[in-house]
């Protein structure tokens, strides 16, 4: 690895390709956690009552915790229920991460040519810029996937779900939650800013890392970002889950990001703002750890292919 680390930096598309491949592989592994996390975050909080609380918590559509959600989804819809929306998710994950790592690599490389050391605050700014650009192009995929994962009844294809959203909310419905998504670019911004700083703090002087070290760096940086932004994540998921659905008595509270946050705080309190934190952390930490582990190995593979191409052309 030390020899490879002396190679010149990859072009932006190399970082983008390695990031998207790593993200796809990681998300396939933990997808059932993503389903459980989405269901837990979008279900309303149940209030304890002396008459029907026990009946309510046994409701097959009410999930007490992550494992309960996975078991009930499997019981109702089989193994395919735990992977509903997977194709759309993988397309979205690949597109989002390709766009993010491309723009991040581009803006970070351009900025690093002007300064010797990039400050922590500028790392966050560069990450936010890259995240905002990526979200503008890939948000419709996330909206369709969330609507698929929270749809009651038989599973719908991505095309059918997109058609339902457009019929109900118009074409702009595919960008539902855009404001929340733009606010949430601080999540990958914190993640990758923390990653850069943790590399220096935990492994000073190293420029290449083993899969285990990459996993540790990715997991720690994602945990920090998730805890900091969980209320924003819950509000965003609730707004996107309401896309294409008929109005309900609470629909007015889910029209936008701010009203969803206010509704959660008023009706569900602090626990509502952090509901689903367990699976969100579990999924995020595992995915980010695997993403960095896979990404770094794919980057090494790309560098090796560059070397082979140079030798053949020489």
UniProtKB/TrEMBL annotation:
InterPro entries tied to this protein: MCP, MCP_dom_sf, MCP_transmembrane, Mito/Peroxisomal_Carrier
**One BP term from GO:** fatty acid beta-oxidation
Give the main localization category: mitochondrion
What membrane topology was assigned to this protein in its record?
Multi-pass membrane protein
Q: Which SUPFAM superfamilies is this protein grouped with?
A: Mitochondrial carrier
Q: Name one Pfam family in it.
A: Mito_carr
Name of the protein: Mitochondrial carrier protein
In which organism is this protein found? Tortispora caseinolytica NRRL Y-17796
């Amino acid at each position: 690895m030390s020899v490879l680390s002396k190679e010149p930096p990859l072009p932006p598309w190399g970082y983008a390709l390695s990031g998207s491949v790593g993200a796809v592989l990681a998300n396939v592994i933990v997808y059932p956690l993503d389903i459980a996390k989405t269901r837990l975050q979008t279900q309303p909080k149940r209030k304890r009552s002396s008459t029907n609380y026990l009946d309510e918590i046994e409701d097959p559509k009410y999930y007490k915790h992550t494992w309960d959600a996975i078991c009930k989804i499997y019981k109702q819809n089989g193994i395919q229920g735990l992977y509903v929306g997977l194709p759309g998710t993988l397309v979205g994950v690949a597109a989002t991460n390709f766009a993010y790592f491309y723009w991040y690599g581009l803006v970070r490389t351009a900025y690093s040519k002007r300064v010797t050391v990039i400050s922590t605050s500028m790392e966050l700014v560069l990450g936010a810029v890259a995240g905002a650009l990526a979200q503008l192009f890939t948000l419709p995929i996330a909206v369709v996937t969330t609507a698929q994962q929270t749809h009651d009844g038989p599973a719908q294809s991505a095309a059918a779900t997109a058609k339902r959203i457009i019929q109900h909310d118009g074409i702009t419905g595919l960008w539902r939650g855009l404001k929340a998504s733009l606010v949430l670019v601080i999540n990958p911004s914190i993640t990758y800013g923390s990653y850069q700083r943790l590399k220096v703090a935990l492994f000073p002087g190293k420029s290449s890392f083993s899969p285990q070290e990459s996993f540790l760096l990715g997991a720690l940086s994602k945990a920090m970002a998730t805890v900091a932004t969980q209320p924003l994540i819950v509000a965003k998921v609730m707004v996107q889950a309401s896309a294409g659905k008929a109005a309900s008595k609470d629909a007015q509270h889910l029209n936008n990001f701010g009203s969803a946050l206010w509704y959660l705080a008023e009706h569900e309190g602090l626990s509502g703002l952090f509901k689903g934190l367990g699976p969100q952390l579990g999924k995020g930490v595992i995915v980010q750890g695997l993403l960095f582990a896979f990404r770094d190995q794919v980057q090494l593979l790309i560098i090796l292919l560059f070397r082979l191409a140079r030798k053949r052309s020489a």
